[in-house]
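During the reporting period the student researcher (J.K.) took over the structure-prediction task from the postdoctoral fellow and processed the backlog of single-chain submissions. One of the processed entries is reproduced below for the supervisory committee.
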Amino acid sequence: MLGSRAPLPPPVPSQTWSADFGLVDLPLAPATAPVERWRVALAPGGTARVQGSVIATAEPGKVETAEPTTVRRLDPKTGATMWTAQAPPGSIAALQIVGPDSAPAVAVAVAVPGRELALTVIDGADARPLWDGEADAPLPIVSATAEMLIVDTPRGQVGIDRASTEERWRTRRDVRLQDGALLVEEPKHSTFGVLDLATGEPLWEHTGEPFGDASVVGDLVVVTRKEEGARDSAMAYDTTTGEPRWTAPASLPRVGRSSVAASGADALILEGGESGGNTAVLDRATGAVRWEGEHVVTDVLTVGGVPTPLEVGENNITVLDATTGADLVTVPMRGYERFTVAGGAVYGADGDDVVARGLPDLEERWRVPGAAGPDGTSFSPVTGGFVTIGTADVVAYMP
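J.K. obtained the following C-alpha cells:
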C-alpha cells in the first residue's frame, strides 16, 4: 500500500548494567501490544516489587492483634501465589528483591512500634527464612549473591551464608557488593580495597591515596579522583590483587563521585555523579579517553550485542553512539518521566498509556491505552510483557 510503513524489526535480546552483577539479561519485550492478563488486589498499606522474573507483595499485619505481615511471591504468567511467608506485624517500610535472578531473595522491612526497624529476608525460590532481626534505619540495605547475604544492621554489616544461614562475618566498615565483589571504601581514611566475600577479610587494600569514588567493573576497580579546577582523574586496579593497571593519560571532565559501567567488552563509561558532571568513555585496557561530553547516561545497554548508552533528559530520550558519543536518535519525552528498559525496547508513560519504543531506533512499537494509570503507578518488564504496580493492585500485561 502506498505510504505504508515497512514492518518494524522485532525486539532483540538486550542487557543492562547492574552495579551489583555487571551486565544482566533483560526480559525480552513482546513484538505486539500486550493486554491485561491478571490483576491482584493489594491490601491497604500493602506494596509490591518486580525484579526479573520475581514479583513479590507484602501486606502489613495488625500490631494490636499480633497478626503477622504476609509476604507472597506471584507467578508472572497467572498471578497465582507461588509461596507465602510471614514477617513481624507493623507498617511496611520497604520491600526489596535482591540477588541474581537465578537465586533471588525477598527482604521486607517493617516498622514495629517501640522497636527498631524489623527486617525479614526470605529465599525467593522456596520461602526459606534467611535472616530475621533489626535493620539499620531509615531504610535497610540488603544485597545478595547465590552464596551470601549481606545485611546492614545497627551493629554493622553482616555476611550470612545462604545455605546454612550462619553468620560468617561482621564489620562496621563501609562495604558494598559491586559486580560480585565486596568493595570496602572509606574516604575519611583514604582507604579502598576488596574483601573476601566469604570471610570478610581483606584481599587487598590501598591506604593514604585520596580519591573521590571507587567502582568494581569485572576485573577492574576504577577509582575517580577530584582534582583542582574542573578536571578530574581516574585510575584502575586489578580486582583480585590490587595491582595498578593504568592511569587515565588525560584529565577528565568533572567525573569525581562518578558511576562507572562497562560499555561492551572493551570500554568503560564514567558518568559524573555531581551537579554539572559530564560523561567520559575510556578504553578498558589502557584508560585512554575515547570521547567525552555533557551527557547524563541513564542506562548502559547492549542491544543485539552492540553497546548502546541511553540518555533520558527533561524533554527528550536519546540513544548515543557508544563509539563517538554522538546522538543517534532523539524523540520528545512527552510525559516519559516514568520509564523502564526491557529487552529491545523502552517502556514509557505517555499520559495514561504505556508505550514501547524499540531500541536502538526509538520507533513506537505499540501502546496499551490506560495501562500507565496515575502518577504513582510504576511499571516493570517481565518475560513477555510488563507489570504495573499502583496503590490498589498489581496488573500484568502479556500478549
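The committee noted the following: The chain has a mean pLDDT of 89.
J.K. will present the remaining backlog at the next meeting.
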